[in-house]
C-alpha cells in the first residue's frame, strides 16, 4: 500500500488526535513487455495540476464530535456543583432577609421605648398629672365650680323655644336605592 501524497510532496494531512492514515487501494500497473528498454510514461497516467480528466473526487473526512467525553464530564460536574450550591445559597439569602427584618423591628421597638420613656417623664411631673386629671376625669380643685359643656342641639332648641332642626336630607344613593325598591315592589311581574 502506498500513501497518498499532497501536491506539495508532503505526506497525508493528519488531524490532531487522529491515528487513522488514509491509504489508497492497490496500485495498478500495466504489464510491460520486457523489451529491454524503459517504458514510456503515457500522459494518461501522469497527474497534472490542471487535471485534464475533470474534477477529482474528494473523500469526506469524518467530522470530530462536537461534544467529547471530557467536555460532557465537565458539564455534568458543573451542573452537579451548581445544584449542590443552590440550596445553601437560598438558605443564606433567606437568613439575610430575616436578619434585616429583625433589625428593622428592633429599631422600631427602640423608637417606641424612647417615646414611652418621654411620656413617663411627663407623668412624673405633678402639674402634668393635675392637668390630665382635669381633662380626663373632670376633677376640680377645692373652691372651683366645674362647667361641663355638652353638644345637644335638640335640647338647646327646646330650651330656647324653637322647633327642632330639620333632619339631614338623605344621601342621593339612598334615595336612588329606595326608588328602585319601590319600583320593584310595584312590578306587575310578580
From TrEMBL:
Residues 20-33, 53-62 have a biased composition (Low complexity). It comes from Paractinoplanes hotanensis. This is Septum formation initiator family protein. The keyword Coiled coil applies. The keyword Transmembrane helix applies. Residues 92-119 form a coiled coil. InterPro entries: FtsL/DivIC. Residues 1-62 are annotated as: Disordered. The chain crosses the membrane at residues 67-87. Pfam families: DivIC. Keywords: Coiled coil, Membrane, Transmembrane, Transmembrane helix.
Amino acid at each position: 500500500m502506498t500513501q497518498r501524497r499532497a501536491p506539495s510532496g508532503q505526506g497525508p494531512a493528519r488531524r490532531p488526535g487522529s491515528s487513522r492514515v488514509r491509504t489508497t487501494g492497490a496500485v495498478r500497473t500495466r504489464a510491460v513487455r520486457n523489451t529491454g528498454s524503459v517504458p514510456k510514461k503515457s500522459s494518461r497516467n501522469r497527474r497534472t495540476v490542471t487535471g485534464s480528466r475533470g474534477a477529482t473526487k474528494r473523500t469526506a473526512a469524518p467530522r470530530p464530535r462536537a461534544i467529547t467525553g471530557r467536555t460532557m464530564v465537565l458539564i455534568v460536574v458543573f451542573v452537579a456543583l451548581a445544584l449542590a450550591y443552590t440550596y445553601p445559597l437560598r438558605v443564606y439569602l433567606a437568613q439575610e432577609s430575616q436578619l434585616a427584618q429583625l433589625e428593622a423591628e428592633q429599631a422600631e421597638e427602640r423608637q417606641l421605648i424612647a417615646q414611652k420613656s418621654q411620656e413617663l417623664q411627663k407623668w412624673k411631673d405633678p402639674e402634668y398629672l393635675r392637668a390630665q386629671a382635669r381633662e380626663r376625669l373632670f376633677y376640680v380643685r377645692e373652691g372651683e365650680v366645674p362647667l361641663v359643656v355638652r353638644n345637644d342641639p335638640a335640647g338647646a332648641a327646646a330650651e330656647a323655644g324653637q322647633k327642632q332642626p330639620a333632619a339631614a336630607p338623605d344621601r342621593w344613593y339612598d334615595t336612588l336605592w329606595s326608588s328602585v325598591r319601590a319600583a320593584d315592589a310595584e312590578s306587575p311581574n310578580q
